[in-house]
């Protein structure tokens, strides 16, 4: 009788442990019906898959995206490297208004214009191998390190870049 009681309690405890560990795994995986799931399988948060890198290089002539949070937090800097200057001209077009979108924070940042300087972005003719940047105003520090953001410049869109 005692043996049956110990056996039954160990089976019940085993089932409870199994169910709780499964619940933890399911909650860590997020909702099953989520339409957006960004997972970085690489230690570098801005690592692009080979397919994504080929797309951005082939369609837009750029790669090596980085979004960095400045020390003060008032500016978020986006940079990219040009591999094909002809295709990358769309990103340096002065008429295209860049926007940095942070869905988690629910904000859309713009490039500020400073008197006597102009827009805080590079808009010169792109050259292969050069890195270009633009700075977005983060007044109120709504965008934070670790957030995943999208950068839109005209028809160009880079998605899911982690803020460093």
Biggest sheet character: 4 strands, antiparallel
The quaternary structure here is: single chain
Between the first and last Cα atoms, what is the distance in angstroms? 62 Å
- Could you give the count of β-strands? 9
Describe this structure in words.
With 164 residues, the protein is an alpha+beta fold. It has helices at 2-29, 50-60, 85-88, and strands at 62-69, 75-82, 98-102, 107-110, 113-114, 118-119, 131-137, 148-153, 156-162. The radius of gyration is 23 Å and the shape is globular. The termini are far apart.
Features:
alpha+beta; disordered N terminus; four-stranded antiparallel beta sheet; single chain; globular; 164 residues; 9 strands; three-stranded antiparallel beta sheet; 3 helices
In short:
The chain has 164 residues and is an alpha+beta fold. The protein has 3 helices and 9 strands, in the order H-H-E-E-H-E-E-E-E-E-E-E.
Question: Topology of this structure?
Answer:
Blueprint: H1 2-29, H2 50-60, E1 62-69, E2 75-82, H3 85-88, E3 98-102, E4 107-110, E5 113-114, E6 118-119, E7 131-137, E8 148-153, E9 156-162
Antiparallel strand pairs: 1-2, 2-7, 3-4, 3-8, 5-6, 8-9
């Amino acid at each position: 009788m005692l043996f049956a009681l110990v056996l039954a309690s160990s089976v019940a405890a085993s089932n409870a442990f199994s169910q709780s560990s499964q619940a933890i795994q399911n909650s860590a995986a997020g909702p099953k019906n989520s339409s957006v799931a960004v997972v970085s399988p690489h230690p570098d948060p801005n690592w692009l898959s080979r397919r994504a890198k080929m797309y951005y290089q082939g369609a837009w002539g750029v790669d090596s995206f980085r979004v960095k949070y400045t020390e003060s937090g008032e500016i978020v800097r986006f940079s990219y490297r040009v591999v094909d200057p002809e295709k990358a001209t769309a990103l340096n077009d002065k008429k295209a208004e860049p926007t940095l979108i942070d869905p988690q924070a629910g904000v859309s940042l713009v490039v500020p214009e400073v008197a006597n300087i102009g827009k805080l972005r590079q808009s010169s003719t792109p050259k292969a191998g050069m890195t270009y940047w633009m700075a977005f105003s983060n007044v109120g520090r709504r965008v934070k390190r670790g957030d995943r953001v999208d950068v839109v410049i005209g028809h160009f869109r880079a998605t899911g870049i982690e803020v460093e």
